[in-house]
Amino acid sequence: MLSKAMNKNLNEQVTWEFYSGYLYLGMSAYFQEAGLPGFAHWMRIQAQEELSHGILFYNFTLGRGGSIKLANIDAPAAGYKNTLDVFEKTLAHENAVTARINKLVGQARKEEDFATDIFLQWFVSEQIEEEENVTGVLNKLKLIKNDGQGLLMLDKELGARTFTPPPALMGSGA
Ligand code: FEO
Questions:
Q1: Cβ(120) to ligand 1 under 6 A?
Q2: Strand, coil or helix: 111
Q3: 123 CA distance to ligand 1 centroid (A)?
Q4: Which residues have C-beta within 8 Å of that of residue 83, sequence separation ≥ 6?
Q5: Which of 172, 162, 167, 136 is nearest to 45 (CA)?
Q6: Is 93's C-beta closer than 6 angstroms to any atom of ligand 1?
Q7: Of 9, 21, 113, 128, which cross-links 47 as Cys (Cβ 3.0–4.6 Å)?
Q8: Could you tell me the CA-to-CA distances from 25 to 31, 76, 85, 119 in Å, in that order?
Q9: Which residues of 102-140 are buried (b: 16+ CB within 10 A; e: fewer)?
């Protein structure tokens, strides 16, 4: 059984993951409008991943006998200066996600809620990958600077990204 405090925080994480999806969907639109369909595709996959994370928290909360209270999802801040700006904001957001996951792990351990601790470990690993992926794109953008040719090549590369659902959702259609 989840504690009241843990249930509340897991609910907040459902909202946060859906907010992340909303944020990346907005970034996808920015790239689509800027004529960078590969970047737009990459961000759309990123949004899809976040929605799947939200569903994982949702399923886990209900599965542990908790209650779900869906909250309002904030509108992401509008307007980006350029491609680099978008990826700097993406990395900052992922760093904030990592901090939230770490805090949840800390709470689970304090409460000796080992089931939640185990559940969260997948997210701990996922965050390493998320930060690594975003940092990789960011580094390439820094190398490219204002070279249009380089940007178009990177656009092509990012356009090949595919969505792999988290193992816990494989075959669920979520
Ligand atoms: Fe749900 Fe990008 O972490």
A1: no
A2: coil
A3: 8
A4: 31, 34, 36, 39, 141, 151
A5: 162
A6: no
A7: 21
A8: 10, 10, 16, 26
A9: eebbebbeeeebeebbebbeebeebbeebbebbeebbeb
The CA distance from 19 to 53, in Å, is: 11
CB 44 within 8 A of CB 25: yes
Rounded Cα distance between 96 and 102, Å, is: 10
DSSP H or E run through 63? helix 37-63
Taking the centre of ligand 1 as the mean of its atom positions, its distance from the CA of residue 97, in whole angstroms, is 6
Going through 26-118 in order, the beta strands assigned E by DSSP cover: none
Residue 172 has pLDDT above 90, yes or no: no
Distance 9 CA to ligand 1 centre (A): 16
Which tens digit of pLDDT belongs to each residue from 47-77? 999 999 999 999 999 999 999 999 999 999 8
